[in-house]
Write a structure and sequence with these properties.
The structure holds 2 protein chains of 2 kinds. Chain A is α/β, with parallel strands linked by helices. Chain A has helices spanning about 5-25, 35-55, 65-80, 90-115, 125-150, 165-185, 195-210, 215-240, 240-265, 270-275, 295-305, 315-320, 325-335, 355-360, 375, 400, 450-470; strands spanning about 310-315, 340-345, 370, 385-390, 420-425, 445-450. The chains are: A alpha/beta, B mainly alpha.
């Protein structure tokens, strides 16, 4: 094969791979076609890798080593794909870390390679692209490791703040940008490259430590976007259109998801990223005097058994308690009696976008019964019973009624407008944002205290035993 | 040539203009396609884009591919191989877990539909 022919063949496989990547994401628009999307993605990746191996620059003698590296990655990847679904947020964060690391390493290798050759290839624009790739890649690497550590609870989930944090963070990022600027002015100033790498790694850590667990959906989506953008930067470094296209798709996906998350919390990007510095710890108290009515699981089951329509609002508490399979039993018992059961999913329920949907799908709950916040709210006044299960801030009426509340303005699932509210909770301890929830002290609300898994299991049993009598 | 064009040429920008086109257009396609993804599937979407962003393996192979020589030191090749391994983790785990999650999404059975 002549080199020209091989070049053309590489470009054609890249073109086919780009088209397949677009279809892969397009087919995610519905659950029916989504699995086809995965296969399109696999095909695109195979074409991309296969096409790259055709590149005349890749020596045959290197192939065994490349194959070995792929196998090592595969051996780590297979167990990572088998984690329980409650651990999917940390797995996702961890894989952003791997993506960032790969981008950062390739950027570093290309810089030293071109420097070694004499630097003619290090044009101003290319040096700009390398700097962007290295900063984004390495900050995604450490930032995602921190996010994964918080989600896995190896690190404390609460925001870690200290005096002058904002200033130190800006100085770190500023330092990295200054090193990059120096390198762009003169790529021969190689002594600036190690500090560029170190400051980028440090900034990733510092960016994430002040962010609390409840903001993780936005952070993960944002890191997803950074991982994509670092692939784009790599594409500019290597003159590679496939990298640019796939990276742009990934970057825009992360961007849209983080915008959705921010809107669902009525917060801006900068508020999510830097908001913890202001801190909302000691928020509006004064609810202590109000009385709370509580009920047993069996009593709550009886109330649901009388209803025509039940809406379940799941939250992170359901995931922590691994209660989704008990929820399925409850769902079965209620639907068996002809009661209409639906699940109202808030966009930020859980620790990553779509987290609740996956957990409920795992428990075999048909996706037709999972409804979005905007869809369920207008129907709330007709709903007989709302069962709040491990959700807190996303049903807090203070978001609508109390202009002083830290979550004021956040769109919520309007559980307070239903006829009766049942709320399963461990204790009266306030939720993640540390805010009192007046939903719990309303007249129509009954609290069911206990572990979500045990309580929901008891509810299902009570309903099953009850229907056995007839 | 005007000074502006000369500067653009010298900085290597002109060579990049077609790539900037590709980037902008791909971003628009991405925004449009992702906006239509069902909210139900946002978690699998994230693991799928994880796998797709592992396309950086292409760059890693190009770094690890050339034979080791004076112009291409061994440590550069090692960086490339580590990057290949890191990207492969994402390719394998990303596609597998996406498929695993999507298998769970089922519609209501026809007999319950009544």
């Amino acid at each position: 094969m002549s080199p020209e022919f091989r070049d053309a063949a590489v470009q054609m496989t890249y073109l086919a791979a780009s088209v397949l990547f677009i279809f892969s994401l397009k087919w995610m628009n519905s659950p029916q076609s989504a699995r086809r999307g995965v296969w399109a993605g696999v095909g695109a990746m195979a074409l991309g890798v296969g096409g790259t191996l055709l590149n005349p620059a890749v020596a045959v003698s290197s192939l065994p080593w490349i194959a070995l590296a792929v196998m090592v990655g595969g051996l780590i990847g297979v167990p990572l794909s088998k984690v329980p679904l409650t651990a999917v947020p940390q797995r996702t964060a961890l894989s952003h870390a791997f993506g960032g690391l790969a981008a950062g390493l390739v950027g570093t290798a290309k810089y030293y390679l071109w420097l070694h050759e004499g630097g003619a290839n290090l044009t101003t624009f290319r040096m700009f692209a390398i700097s962007a790739e290295v900063i984004l890649g390495f900050l995604t690497f450490t930032g995602s490791l921190m996010a994964a550590g918080k989600l896995q609870e190896i690190l404390p989930g609460r925001p870690i703040t200290y005096r002058g944090q904002l200033m130190i963070n800006f100085l770190t990022l500023g330092g990295a940008i200054a090193c990059a600027a120096g390198l762009i002015i003169n790529p021969q100033w190689f002594f600036l490259f190690p500090p560029l790498v170190i400051l980028s790694l440090a900034f990733g850590v510092m960016l994430i430590i002040p962010i609390g667990g409840a903001d993780m959906p936005t952070v993960i989506a944002l890191l997803n976007s950074y991982a994509g953008l670092s692939a784009v930067a790599m594409g500019f470094v290597l003159d590679n259109t496939l990298l640019i296209i796939a990276g742009a798709l990934d970057g825009s996906s992360g961007l849209i998801l983080s915008i959705i998350m921010c809107k669902a919390m009525n917060r801006s990007f900068s508020n999510v990223l830097f908001g913890a510095f202001g801190s909302v710890q000691e928020a509006a108290g004064g609810e202590a005097g109000k009385t709370v009515k509580s009920a047993s699981a069996a009593e709550a089951a009886e109330i649901m058994g009388q209803a025509d329509e039940v809406v379940i609002v799941p939250g992170y508490g359901m995931a922590v308690a691994q209660a989704q399979h008990r929820v399925r039993e409850l769902y079965d018992q209620l639907t068996k009696r002809g009661i209409k059961v639906r699940f109202a999913i808030h966009p930020v329920a859980g620790r990553m976008p779509g987290h609740m949907n996956v957990l409920l799908a795992e428990a075999d709950i048909p996706y037709d019964d999972l409804v979005e916040m905007e869809e369920i709210n207008p129907e709330m006044p007709q709903v007989d019973v709302v069962l709040v299960l491990g959700a807190n801030d996303v049903v807090n009426p203070a978001a609508k009624n109390n202009p002083n509340s830290p979550i004021h303005g956040m769109p919520i699932i309007e559980a307070d407008r239903a006829k009766t509210v049942l709320a399963v909770k461990r204790s009266m301890k306030p939720g993640f944002a540390g805010i009192d929830n007046e939903l719990y002290t309303m007249d129509k609300t009954l609290m069911v205290f206990g572990d979500a898994k045990a309580v929901v299991g008891d509810m299902a049993k009570a309903l099953a035993g009850d229907s056995g009598m007839h | 040539m005007t000074p502006f064009l000369a500067a653009a040429e010298a900085s290597g920008l002109t060579a990049y203009i077609p790539l900037i086109f590709v980037f902008i257009l791909a971003t628009f396609i991405g925004l449009d396609v992702i906006r239509n993804v069902s909210r139900l599937l946002h978690t699998p979407l994230m693991s799928l884009t994880n796998a797709i962003s592992a396309v950086v393996i292409v760059g890693a192979i190009l770094v690890a591919g050339p034979p080791v020589s004076d112009e291409h030191p061994l440590w550069i090749t090692i960086l490339g191989l580590v990057a290949i391994a890191a990207a492969s983790v994402n390719i394998v785990s990303g596609f597998l877990i996406t498929n695993r999650m999507l298998k769970m999404f089922k519609s209501r059975k026809p007999e319950e539909k009544s």
